[in-house]
Amino acid sequence: MKTILFLFLLFYITTNAFAQRSTYKPFKLDLAIGLAFPTANTFLDQRFSFSVEPKYNISDQFTLGLRAEVDPNTNFAGTSDPFIINSVSSYLLTGDYFLKKSKSIRPFFGIGGGIFKQTISANGFPTTKIKSEKPGLETRLGLERKHFRATVEYNVTFFKQEKKMNYVNLKIGAFLWGGHF
Q1: H-helix or E-strand spanning residue 88
Q2: The domain containing residue 157 runs over which residues?
Q3: What's the structural domain count of the chain?
Q4: What CA–CA distance (Å, rounded) separates 112 from 52?
Q5: Which tens digit of pLDDT belongs to each residue from 121-142?
Q6: Which stretches of the chain drop beneath a pLDDT of 70?
Q7: Of 70, 158, 82, which Cα lies nearest the Cα of 113?
Q8: What is the pLDDT of residues 71-100, one digit of tens each?
Q9: What is the CATH number of the domain that holds 99?
Q10: Separation CA 51–CA 68 (nearest Å)
Q11: N or C: which end of the chain has fewer CB within 10 A?
């Protein structure tokens, strides 16, 4: 309950602090698909990702959102590791800062923080599932044009070394609402 109250208070303060939105509609919904690539020394393999991110345009240059993402196991590479990560999901509070206010291509960067969850099959037995959740961070660079969006994201999780799952995610998508008035 304290977390929800803190997030609501943070949302209220930033909304009033940046209350100069004039060009873009206040609410938008990002829908994206992507391909996740693990960084070195992880048990994660390449996989597809799907994300939904409702956002609020605090100003023409700053958005605040909540990202929900799932990366189900697609096992492109095939693995002989004793642990196989079946799925990764994340729930993050995000913020994007747009470098331009124009209607054309709008480059942006962003950051997010929240919870990453993973389900692991141990020792090759799919019936033995280990579930864990830890905090993590996400940084992103991207471009928006009209209602289309492309991003490169780097996700860092704080799992123990043997279960670490940092990954780069290349995404394309679209957003609903949130365009020009």
Answers
A1: strand 83-98
A2: 2-177
A3: 1
A4: 14
A5: 665 555 555 667 788 899 999 9
A6: 1-22, 40-45, 73-86, 120-131, 159-164, 178-181
A7: 158
A8: 876 554 455 555 566 677 889 999 999 888
A9: 2.40.160.20
A10: 6
A11: N
